[in-house]
Predict the 3D structure of the following.
Amino acid sequence: MQLDNSLDTLADDMDFAALLEASFARQEPQRGDIVSGTILAVDNQGLIIDIGLGRDGVVERRDLERIQDDVEYTLGDSVDVMVIRPEDEEGNLLLSVSQARQSEDWKQAEDLLEADEVWQGMVTEANRGGLIVPFGNLRGFVPASHVVGLSRGLSEDERKDQMQAMVGQKITVKIIEVNWKRRRLVFSQREAQRERREARKEVLLEKLEEGDVHRGVVSGLRDFGAFVDLGGADGLIHISELAWHRVKHPREILNVGDEVEVYVLRLDEEGKRIGLSLKRLQQNPWELIESMYHVGQLVDGTVSRVTQFGAFISMEPGIEALLHISQMADPQPEHPSLLVHEGQQLLMRVISVEPDKQRLGLSLREVTAEEQERWDEKRREEQARLAAEAAAQEAEAAEEAGFEAADTVELETATQLEVQE
């Protein structure tokens, strides 16, 4: 009998030890853990989930309402959940389906960021700071500085209106920041566009050859030149390649949106640059110089710029000739600006013609006093004629305005008489 009691006690001790060992082996759920469970109940309060740890968890209804997709939950279904609180005030294990799904979305966002890939999403909201683009169950943000097409110099309200107009549109973006802890998911439409344009440029560089002529649209103007969209990729017309004459700013020649034919001047596949030219499609005006000018000829032109060593003169057919300081007067002035200024019209004599070097030399001091006087008189007569024409046009316009005013008075008077009658 005593032996039997001892055996029973030993068996009880072994069962307790096994249970104790099993309890230690079973890990308690920790906040942030993602586990798979089975739905035990579905009601208006939410879900009850068996996560296989000896405890059932609760998913509240408001958590299910955060999920973007319309999902029906059925008894026995398997579902991934995140542990929100191992135990609340009532001893419940709180779980979240939405945050488990967000965890998957965060992982996908990180994968896209690491892969340096673009992604397309729908704009659902806009505010003064930027655009909201949902990414699964996350709210992605596109800062205004990364939105394509926002014009510079807009007021805050105008910028917000432009972004508001994008709500409901699909846009291609690139993920530039993923931060789980701060719950920041930041997109860039500008970076995505830049990447796509770079890819198109690589394809275009393979197709283009130097010497080709292509049509394009002017996409931007800068002090140093003009950008032309050749069909998804931009080439640059340097300011020196816009025209054979000197150009101060590209806006003198082009406007954004202009459709132009351009000459492919150079291709830099390594730097992914496309050099273009407008002037190479135009006849070189210096090829016409010998047929238009000869040494000793009197010509007139307009001072386009003044330098330390002389003045450049704009002349037909779109060239700049040089009036050297030594050819301005005798004795030579200390500085050209003492005798000439930009925009001034001058009578000069051609002293050298060098079309191969694109040079045309002029002299002011070799113009005689009689020649200068006749030229001045001719200019005065021309100015008087133009002034008379302008005065006649103004008088005609004033007369027409007077007739219109008289007609208006007569019409108003007639209308008043009809009303009185």
About this structure: The helical segments are 2-25, 61-65, 97-115, 156-164, 189-207, 289-292, 369-420. The first helix runs from residue 2 to 25. Residues 289-371 form a domain with the OB fold (Dihydrolipoamide Acetyltransferase, E2P) fold (CATH 2.40.50.140).
